[in-house]
């Protein structure tokens, strides 16, 4: 059984259940090493995120859960997935449950009007045929998917958009791993200082 509390995420928009499966691995093995590949631009290809997705799906493919629950009843929006100054709890009264994690995540993202083509991790799951990635092939019970459109405040996509008092942030080109670390540091500073 995989129970996932869905909230905003700086790299993947939302913390979907596939990301949660990676928590089964000890933190010491979750570290993504920067492997320089000759002739390839590490930043342009976002190699950190690609390596992270590969690791997450490798762990997921070893043992797929029989029951997956994406809990959206209370959703953390704004600066997440941790509680920061700019975080906000939103009540949606929704839970997405199923026996296929990829399908559950696809429906979860659909509620936020995020297309499969905008989710790198679900695209890679589709390429590996790890689950159902077509909404017409998913048997839906309960609410009508067309009637639900959740509007939420997602994480900032640029570090410059995190406003700290007396601080000017100019990020330049950074990999997604560095972005994630700086994002959390800046939000922690904003929460503790302001």
Write the layout of secondary structure elements.
Elements: E1 2-9, E2 13-14, H1 17-21, H2 27-30, H3 47-62, E3 68-78, E4 87-91, E5 95-98, H4 101-111, H5 120-127, H6 176-193
Parallel strand pairs: 1-3
Antiparallel strand pairs: 1-2, 3-4, 3-5
Report what the structure shows.
The chain has 194 residues and is α+β, with helices and mostly antiparallel strands. It has 2 domains: 146 residues, no CATH class; 35 residues, no CATH class. It contains 6 helices and 5 strands; from the N terminus they run ββαααβββααα. A hairpin with a 3-residue loop joins β1 and β2. α3 crosses α5. InterPro entries: DUF362. It holds the Pfam family DUF362.
